[in-house]
Amino acid sequence: MNYENDNKIWRVLGPLFAFLGIRFLVETVFYVVLWYVKFKKLNISAAFNGILYMEEYSEYVISFTLVMSMVSLLISIPVMYLLMKKDYEYPINPRRKEKSFNMRSYLKKAEIKRFNLPIIIGITAATGVGRFITMLPFDGILGSYKTVQENIGRSSVWLQLFVLGVLTPILEEILFRGIIYKRLKMYYEITVAAYIAAIIFAIAHFNLIQGIYAFIVGIVLIYIYEKSGNLIVPIVMHSVANIVSVIMGVNPISRFIDGNILVRIVVSLAMIGLFVISILKINEKYREVE
C-alpha cells in the first residue's frame, strides 16, 4: 500500500478520535436515559426547572461511570480490532513485517515462559511506579486523579476488575500499541514512534498523575510488544497492573502502606527496583524461549 499522500495526523489519531466519539455517544444516550429514569416521577416543570435537582442528578449519573465505560469498550473493541487486523493484512512498514495478531497460534508457540516477567512488571508498575507517582503534589494541576478514583470507587469491585482489568487493557493495547504506535512507525524510527505513542497515551488519560504513569508504562508496554513480537504479552502486563491497582484500593495491607509515608516510600522504591530489573531481563528471557 502507498501511504505517501496520507494525512499523517488523521491516520495516526483517527482511531483515537473514533473511540472518543463512541464514548461520547454512549455517554449522551446514558445521560438522556438516566435523566428520564431519575425524573419520570416528577412533573415536567420540576424536571426542567429543577436546578435544585441537578446536584442529585449529577451524583446519580456518576454512579454509572464504569457502566458507561463498559458499554463504550464493548462497542469499541471489535471496531479497533478490525482496524488493527486491516493494518496487519497490509503491513505498513515493509522493512519489518510483523507477526499477525493470532491469539491461538501465538499462545501455542509462546508457552507460559513469555508471560512471567511481564506479570512481574505489571505488579511492580502498580505497587511501585503507580504508588510513588500518586505521592507527587501534581494532582489538580491538569485534571483530578482523586476525582477519577472516587467516581470509579462508586462501582462494585467485581465491575472494576472486569472493566479496568479485562476490557480496558484489551482496548488500549489494540488502540495505542496495535494501531497508533504501529502506524507511527510508518513515518518515524522506532524510538521516536515509541515516545510519540507514549505521549498520546498519557494525554488520553486527561489528568497529570495518570498521564505521568501512562507515559512510563506506555514506553515499557511498547518495549515488551517489540521484544515479544505479539500484542498479547503487553495486554497481559497491562491487565495485571490494572487488577493489582483495583485490589490495592480495597486491600487493608495496601491501605496501611499508603497511610504511612515512610513505609510507602520504602515499598515504592523497592518495587520500582524490581520493576527496572525485570525490564532489563526481558531481552534475555525472550532469547531463551525462542
In this structure, how is the largest beta sheet organized?
A: none
- Oligomer description: single chain
State the separation between the terminal residues, measured CA to CA.
31 Å
Average predicted local confidence, pLDDT: 86
Total number of helical segments?
Answer: 13
Report the order of strands and helices.
Answer: HHHHHHHHHHHHH
State the share of residues found in helices, binned by percent: over 70%
> Which residues sit in consecutive blocks of at least 5 with pLDDT less than 50?
92-97
How many strand units? 0
- Structural class by sheet pairing and helices: mainly alpha
Rg over CA atoms, rounded to whole Å, is 21 Å
Number of domains: 1
Strand content: under 5%
**Silhouette:** globular
Summarize the structure in words:
The model is unreliable at 92-97 (pLDDT under 50). Helix 1 (8-39) packs antiparallel against helix 4, helix 4 runs parallel beside helix 8 (157-184) and helix 8 packs antiparallel against helix 9. This protein has helices at 8-39, 44-48, 51-62, 65-89, 103-110, 113-133, 145-152, 157-184, 190-203, 208-228, 232-250, 252-258, 261-288. 79% of the residues lie in helices and 0% in strands. The protein has one domain. The chain is globular, with a radius of gyration of 21 Å. With 290 residues, it is mainly α. The protein contains 13 helices and no strands.
List keywords for this structure.
290 residues; mainly alpha; 13 helices; 79% helix; globular
What does the secondary structure layout of this molecule look like, with pairings?
Layout: H1 8-39, H2 44-48, H3 51-62, H4 65-89, H5 103-110, H6 113-133, H7 145-152, H8 157-184, H9 190-203, H10 208-228, H11 232-250, H12 252-258, H13 261-288
Helix pairs in contact: 1-4, 1-8, 4-8, 6-10, 6-11, 6-13, 8-9, 8-11, 9-10, 10-11, 10-13
